[in-house]
Amino acid sequence: MAPPPDDRLTAQFAFLNEADRLKSVLRATTLCDGSRPENSGEHSWHLALYAMVLADQAGPGVRIDRVIRMLLIHDLVEIDVGDVPIHSKGGAAHASAETQAAEQRAADRIFGLLPPDLGADFRALWDEFEAAETPDAVFAKSLDRVQPVMANLQSGGGTWVTYNVTAEQLETRVGAKVARGAPRLWDWVKARTRVYFG
């Protein structure tokens, strides 16, 4: 039995109001002009735009509408967990069991605010992104990794300078994931990183 319309709207707006908190989660990556850190809400919006503009870099079978949906919700768990930069000393924690468990709890809570049908749909999309096994999720992950690279290129090195990132770290932590879903894109971007990594 469906909830009464008022209850459904109450749940939908509870989720939307909670999602607004993503704008307060600061990331290590700066804006392209280097003036300030970007927030996770800005990052998610920018990635959705990346998907629209770079759709021609997607592999066969990738549905850009689904990629955009994934990218708009992929970092909502940071409302509870925060952002762990992959190049920071805590970057290893990014994939730790503890961080993953915290993200699962955050996903339960945040997507649980929605009416059950929407909550299940959003949660399945988030789980798909995290698993990075479908063509849509692989391409979405590629864009998630390449956007900070472009910000670093535009801002004079950005977090690469802050965290003393090496060419090998960039290749293993970023390049491999970008190349998996968008190989031509990584070739183009990597050529521009040589200014910083030789």
TrEMBL record:
Residues 19-186 form the HD domain. GO terms for molecular function: 5'-deoxynucleotidase activity; metal ion binding. The keyword Metal-binding applies. SUPFAM superfamilies: HD-domain/PDEase-like. GO terms for cellular component: cytoplasm. The keyword Metal-binding applies. Keywords: Hydrolase, Metal-binding. This is HD domain-containing protein. It comes from Paragemmobacter straminiformis.
